[in-house]
Q: What sequence folds into this?
């Protein structure tokens, strides 16, 4: 316990010294920054001085070289002067007598020579001018001669070509005349033949009109007798008719929907990364949340940005549902694209999210501009981003407006006329290209902002990495939007031309209800055609069919549950990977800080340990007396309990553990505790997912059982109604048969009576005939 108290006291002293050193560290940081700025300015001044010194040295070298040349030149001149003086002394006497005569002769000669030179110069000028004028006239005359020769040659060529052309045209006209004469003769013959044929055709036309009139009367009679109702006359009823199935169009549309889904997935991932890294940036600049508390505005802004996944992920889900609704068997037009409404709603929710975070984002940029670290250039970049964020929200509002207009035909067809479909699609393409240009401007401004923030004195490695991540997410977002814009522009003709796809004889589907009814009729027709093509299978016993149905339902439920578990696990894996990257960055930053602090602690502890060694050397007897007690206490384990678990430290060595061993023990303990908690969390998650799947399967089984019970009760009611109806029919038929039998018996009685009467009449006639015959014989 005494050793533990000593360790605790030492730890408190170290903590106090660490706080003092940390306070001094801030002052030293400022001093280092100032000294760095001064050293940079001094380095620049030193460079300037070095350059000026080099220039002066070069000038000095050139001057020394020139001085040496001049010195040599002076020496040579001095030598020549000495020689000339020596010669001059000898010839001085003879030269004085002859110099007077020579000067007079020289002056006369010079005057004559000057006059001749001037006259010669004037003659040369006149000769040169005359020569130049002659050459000029000769050149002009030669040029005129060349031009005239070329004109003559051209005129001669034109005359020759015209003569050839006229001779050719005369020959052609003569040939054409002969051909036209022959052709006129053939045309006269053909005209005669045509007259004969027209007479025959008129006769045949009369016969055909008569035959068609008779057939038309017959067909009208058949239609009036056999066809009581023609549904193609009314658009409302014609919309219920199933149109011709265009399989190529459906496959093309499904392919386009698959490409759009891939592009939207890229857009969603880029938006998620952009919002997430923006949240990290808000927490570390201009104030780092790890060292100081950020402003309430930035706290609220980061809280809203943390909710971005709940608004961005539904865009991908809505596009996936729209892709799944487009199959090969359906008829896909705007009136039948019901899932487009859900995508429009998800886009509206994301637009509300952008509107919610826009004021906080703008205020955050303004707050960053007001901070002391913000320079003029950085403030200009922030104001440009301020304008770009407003434009970004406006672009999303425009896109949402056009997408909601496209979703109207499937819900409210009167909200958008069919003639406006083309303009809506073209406006969407233009908005996507504007969105792409805006994202280019944003990425350009943000790259300049990131380079300026790196020059800030308080810029950390965490800020630089976060800026790089934001720039990479902006580049990915720009690429995704560019792909979507080019894809939409390339397939704009297909989107606009495929809207007339509908029933035969009609121009459109009147309402979503009629389109839905048409799809149901189409499914029934397909099922009927399949049933006609399919051979009749052997019947299965009812009990076996029920057992198979239960097995099938359980297997489908388990498969659906497993698919949902796989989907949830994939989403969790994606989230965990994002968190892993985030915490890896945090761990790197923390590691760097820990190494710096360890170095500082080692430096401080080295001085402290020297003092303790001196104290132990002064008091050796006290140490010997307490040695046995300290050995016992050091060999026993020390336990410290907290909310995170239990930390056990065994001190078997003779020396007390230093700060590194203690930090390693704490680190290993925390890592083991985190691994244990994560394993428990994973087990709990897997169990909860398993129980959730089982509950869903049981709920589905219960709902299916209730549905089967309701269907069986309805069938039982129908069977009882059929039985009562059959009994009533049986009674009515029995009564009718009895009435018919009684009528037949009465009829038979009346016939018997008539027969007896006829027999009596026959007998009376026979008797009268016999009496008449007897009388005739007697006569």
A:
């Amino acid at each position: 316990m005494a050793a533990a108290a000593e360790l605790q006291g030492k730890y408190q002293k170290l903590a106090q010294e660490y706080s003092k050193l940390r306070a001094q560290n801030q002052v030293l940081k400022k001093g280092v920054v100032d000294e760095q700025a001064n050293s940079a300015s001094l380095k620049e001044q030193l460079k300037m001085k070095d350059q000026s010194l080099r220039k002066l040295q070069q000038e000095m070298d050139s001057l020394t070289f020139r001085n040496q040349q001049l010195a040599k030149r002076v020496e040579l001149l001095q030598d020549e002067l000495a020689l000339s003086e020596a010669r001059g002394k000898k010839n001085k006497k003879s030269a004085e007598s002859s110099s007077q005569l020579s000067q007079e002769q020289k002056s006369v000669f010079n005057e004559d020579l000057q006059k001749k030179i001037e006259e010669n110069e004037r003659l040369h000028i006149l000769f040169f001018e005359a020569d130049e004028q002659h050459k000029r006239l000769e050149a002009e005359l030669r040029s005129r001669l060349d031009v005239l020769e070329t004109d003559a040659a051209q005129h001669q060529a034109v005359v020759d070509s015209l003569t050839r052309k006229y001779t050719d045209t005369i020959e052609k006209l003569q040939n054409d005349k002969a051909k036209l004469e022959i052709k006129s003769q053939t045309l006269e013959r053909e005209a005669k033949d045509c007259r004969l044929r027209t007479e025959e055709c008129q006769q045949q036309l009369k016969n055909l009109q008569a035959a068609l009139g008779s057939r038309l009367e017959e067909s009208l009679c058949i239609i009036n007798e056999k066809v009581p109702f023609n549904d193609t006359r009314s658009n409302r009823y014609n919309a219920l008719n199933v149109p011709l199935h265009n399989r190529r169009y459906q496959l093309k549309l499904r392919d386009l929907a698959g490409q759009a889904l891939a592009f939207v997935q890229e857009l969603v991932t880029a938006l998620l990364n952009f919002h997430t890294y923006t949240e990290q940036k808000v927490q570390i600049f201009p104030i780092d949340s790890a060292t100081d508390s950020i402003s309430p505005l930035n706290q609220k802004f980061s809280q809203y940005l943390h909710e971005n996944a709940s608004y961005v992920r539904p865009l991908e889900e809505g596009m996936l549902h729209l892709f799944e609704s487009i199959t090969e068997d359906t008829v896909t037009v705007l009136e039948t694209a019901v899932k487009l409404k859900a995508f429009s709603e998800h886009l509206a929710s994301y637009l509300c999210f952008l509107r919610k975070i826009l004021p906080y984002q703008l205020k955050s940029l303004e707050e960053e501009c007001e901070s002391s670290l913000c320079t003029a250039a950085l403030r200009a970049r922030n104001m440009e981003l301020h304008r770009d964020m407003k434009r970004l929200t406006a672009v999303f509002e425009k896109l949402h407006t056009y997408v909601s207009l496209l979703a109207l035909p499937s819900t409210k067809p009167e909200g958008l006329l069919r003639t406006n479909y083309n303009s809506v699609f073209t406006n969407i393409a233009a908005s996507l290209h504007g969105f792409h240009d805006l994202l280019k401007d944003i990425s350009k401004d943000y790259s300049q902002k990131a380079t300026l923030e790196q020059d800030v004195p308080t810029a950390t490695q965490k800020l630089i990495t976060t800026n790089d991540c934001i720039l990479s997410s902006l580049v990915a977002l720009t690429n995704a939007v560019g792909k979507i814009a080019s894809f939409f522009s390339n397939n704009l003709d297909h989107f606009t031309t495929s809207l007339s796809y509908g029933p035969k004889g009609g121009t459109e589907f009147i309402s979503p209800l009629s389109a839905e009814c048409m799809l149901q009729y189409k499914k029934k027709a397909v099922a009927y055609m399949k049933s006609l093509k399919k051979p009749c299978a052997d019947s299965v016993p009812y009990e076996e069919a029920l057992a198979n149905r239960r097995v099938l339902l359980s297997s489908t439920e388990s498969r659906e549950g497993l698919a949902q578990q796989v989907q949830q696990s994939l989403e969790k894996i994606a989230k965990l990977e994002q968190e892993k990257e985030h915490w890896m960055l945090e761990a790197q930053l923390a590691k760097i800080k820990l190494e710096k602090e360890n170095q500082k602690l080692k430096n401080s502890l080295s001085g402290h340990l020297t003092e303790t060694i001196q104290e132990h050397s002064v008091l050796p007897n006290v140490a010997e007396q307490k040695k046995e007690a300290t050995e016992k206490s050091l060999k026993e384990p020390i336990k410290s309990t907290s909310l995170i678990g239990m930390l056990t430290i065994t001190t078997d060595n003779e020396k007390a553990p230093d700060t590194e061993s203690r930090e390693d023990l704490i680190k290993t303990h925390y890592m083991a505790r985190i691994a244990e908690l994560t394993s428990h969390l994973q087990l709990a998650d897997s169990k909860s997912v398993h129980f959730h799947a089982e509950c869903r399967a049981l709920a589905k089984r219960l709902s299916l059982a209730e549905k089967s019970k309701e269907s069986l009760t309805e069938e039982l009611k129908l069977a009882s109604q059929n039985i009562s109806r059959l009994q009533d029919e049986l009674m009515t038929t029995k009564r009718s048969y009895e009435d018919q039998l009684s009528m037949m018996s009465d009829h038979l009685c009346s016939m018997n009576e008539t027969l007896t009467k006829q027999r009596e009449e026959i007998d009376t006639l026979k008797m009268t005939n016999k009496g008449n015959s007897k009388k005739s014989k007697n006569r």
